[in-house]
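Hey, I'm writing a tutorial for new members on how sequence and structure tokens pair up, and I'd like a real worked example in the thread rather than a made-up one. If someone can provide the structure for the chain below, I'll link this post from the tutorial.
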Amino acid sequence: MVRDLDLAPCTRMCAGVMRSGRPATKATRSCLPKPPHPLPGNARWRRPLDLSVIWRIGWESGEPHHAAFRAVVNCSAFGHPLAPIPMPSGVQRRTCGAVACAHSIGVIAPTVMIMNESATLHSTPLSEPDTRQPPLTLGFIGLGIMGWAMCGHLQRAGHRLRVFARDQVKRERAALAGMQVCSSPAEAAMGAAFVFTNVTSTPDVEQVLLGPEGAAHGASPGTICVDHSTIAPSGARRIAVALGEAGIDFLDAPVSGGEKGAREAGLSIMVGGEPEAYARALQLLSLLGSTITHVGPAGSGQVAKLCNQIVQVINIEGIAEAMRFAQAEGADLHRVLRAISAGFAGSRMLDLMGPKMAARDFAAGIPARLHAKDFSLAAEAARHAGLALPALSAVHAQLDRLMALGMGGDDTSSLLRALEQPKK
């Protein structure tokens, strides 16, 4: 088990180096306790294992530019290599790397090294007790773009997959990949320690888990069901109660990051459910995402996901309205984007959606119909809570209009096109 790291000393040092404006090339500092010695009597050194935590911080003209940092765990026990962290375009790269070596019973003692952009990450593997998770039998239901990528990560880590999909083409693809294709969700859950689902809607999740041929009828008590779909928080709570009556744990674990995040195991995963079930599932979730947060009890993951969607899509609508205004005033959209992205209007969503709108590239990254579905969930939850959320309501109406115009299969940047259409 890898314990939580106290990263505050590392980040304070990084910030100090950045503020100083000096080239950061040689500074080192140990920031966590050394491991206990000697090893416990039941521990054995068996194989190298290194955990590398990396921060990448970029700045321009000697001033902090990209203060956010992202921790990436590179653990051979998880079966995937260290992935590079993308930086904002035009930003000079500087890397603050921290090499963390796992010691007995999970105590970490990293040495932080500040390196320039031409430096490489150096790891110092130590012989460790073998903490690799043994191969598990996993059920997986839903083999769409996201689910298929997730299955690949789990299979490459050595786990055995029993899968179910309604689409025959997806079933054949899974069989060719060496996965065991099952005739129902219940069959996929037989003998599985965990059952993952990634389908479309609340009724879909209820059907594949609780329906007549649902996973609940094949799973044994003690199984953990992990749902990566985006559904209503109230639905997630109902499912958790129903599965709990059968002795099955449930985690609602919606994701953010899209197809690219799924392919690169870089998803943000927001989890609701019992802490014990979350702890048991964490190593598997670490194969799928780079940021995994236990938000709270059942339904909390879905609440966080809808908050994510509210912020994200209202931002997209704001970008669309800004581009429509600039367009109507005869301004060059690309130059407007360049000007505002350096100010407080700058955001990851502006960097992603602004250029697509300016270039009129509306090919789907995430189809607008999925954002429309999520906004319907958020609007319904707000209505039940008696909340007046005017921006949510206005953007929900724009998404509905986009669907009425037949653009649901296009990217959500098509909100610009909805603004360009005269209202009837």
